[in-house]
Write a structure and sequence with these properties.
251 residues, 4-stranded mixed sheet, alpha+beta
């Protein structure tokens, strides 16, 4: 039968308490500290992860807001670009239409100018042809009798000169060099009586006695021409034809 030994029992208890103290001192406390530190790290990592998640959420929201804002601005810019392109197209179209209208107007003016020039050339050509034909006819009709008749008409016109024409004739005669002779050209030789009548009538119209030199020029066709200084008196068919030809060319 076993006997209870108090000494052994007490020693065992002391050993147990020493073991508990050793475990408490060198095992449980470091382990608990390590567990606490690990739990703290986990908590810190969790908080840090939560902070990062919140930052990420904030960044996502900012990104979405910026993306929405960028999309809005892009849409606005697109509308503005479409409007600007439409305005430029309208402006370019208006400019093109105006340019075409101006070119069409210029072309019409050029065509009309070409037509007018052609018509004027035809009129001048017709006038030249008519002048040549009329000259041929008048040359066939020209005769000393016709020149004599034209000289008679010239004398009648001298007697009925207007005050202004008579003043101009007298002014031209007054500017002549003294003793200079007035050349009176006729298409045919004038009888002495007609030459004297013409000299007298011209001197009376000029307001002074004039000296005349008579000369024959068949180019006048019929009639005569007197030049007193700056004043020229025409009464012949060649000058009349030339006058009508100039009127036709400038008409």
């Amino acid at each position: 039968m076993m006997e209870f030994d108090w000494t052994t029992f007490i020693l065992e208890i002391v050993n147990f308490l020493v073991l508990v103290w050793i475990l408490q001192r060198f095992l449980y406390r470091p382990m608990l500290s390590m567990l606490d530190a690990r739990q703290q790290r986990i908590k810190d990592e969790t908080e840090r992860a939560e902070h990062l998640r919140l930052e990420a959420e904030t960044l996502r929201q900012q990104y979405e807001e910026r993306l929405a804002d960028w999309s809005q601005r892009q849409e606005t810019s697109r509308h503005e670009l479409d409007a600007e392109l439409a305005r430029l197209r309208r402006s370019a179209l208006e400019t093109l239409q105006k340019s075409l209208a101006d070119e069409e107007a210029k072309q019409r003016i050029r065509n009309q100018s070409s037509i007018d020039s052609r018509e004027a050339a035809l009129v001048r050509e017709a006038a030249e042809t008519a002048y040549a034909q009329a000259a041929l006819i008048l040359q066939r009709l020209a005769s000393p009798q016709l020149t004599h008749r034209i000289a008679e008409i010239f004398l009648e016109d001298l007697s009925t000169l207007s005050e202004s024409d008579q003043t101009a004739l007298r002014k031209a005669a007054a500017m002549l060099i003294p003793a200079s002779a007035i050349e009176l050209v006729s298409a045919h030789p004038l009888p002495d009586q007609m030459a004297s009548a013409l000299s007298l009538a011209l001197s009376q119209a000029a307001g002074q006695n004039l000296s005349f030199v008579f000369r024959v020029d068949p180019a006048l066709i019929a009639g005569l021409r007197a030049v007193i200084g700056e004043c020229q008196l025409h009464a012949n068919l060649a000058d009349e034809l030339a006058f009508f030809r100039r009127q036709a060319n400038h008409g």
